[in-house]
Amino acid sequence: MNRLHDLRAPDTAARAYHWRDDAACFGRAALFLPRKDYGPEYLASTLKAKRICENCPVRKACLDEAMATERADGEGGRAGVRGGLTPRERTARYSRQRRGIPEPATLLDQYLRRTEALDDGHVRWTVSTNNIAYLGRQYTPMQLAWALATRREPEGLLRTGCGLAGCVAAEHLTDAAMRRARSHTKRYAA
Ligand code: SF4
Ligand SMILES: [Zn+2]
């Protein structure tokens, strides 16, 4: 696995400063390099990584390096969150740069901007707006979290299954298909 996030120059008295010395992700490669690239666990770890990048003092240098060094790699050769962007977001960024198109906010940015991570993995929606328009589609906060975490449309109503009213942590949401599967499992486990 690419352990780029754990790289740091050896501590010798004479060595020069490198921006990686101040990387906020140092030692957290597992969070920044999730095994899967979809699903609720992926979303949860990616959001945590992005929040760390948001406050990282060397974010610009990190993103500049990623964009400069990964240019020749295909999307499959890009790994992990770097400079606040996922591999897929960096691929889209290359494509826009090539075509001279300005950067729009991603769906994930829309979610991050309006949420706050709480303890125990809960996520709070922090703004009064409950309708997010993105690329010609409207999302409720729960639909936004669901769209980021899964690649399928929800069946029926989305609900928070963690007991915290209004929680929009993707891994705490259920749709009718998931609730049906769970009650089926319970019935047969009883
Ligand atoms: S911007 Fe993110 S990936 Fe880059 S050094 Fe900072 S925390 Fe690590
Ligand atoms: Zn929750």
Automatic annotation (TrEMBL):
Source organism, top-level taxon: Bacteria
Listed Pfam families: Whib
Domain 4Fe-4S Wbl-type: 24-92
Region (Disordered): 73-96
Protein name: WhiB family transcriptional regulator
Organism, as annotated: Streptomyces virginiae (Streptomyces cinnamonensis)
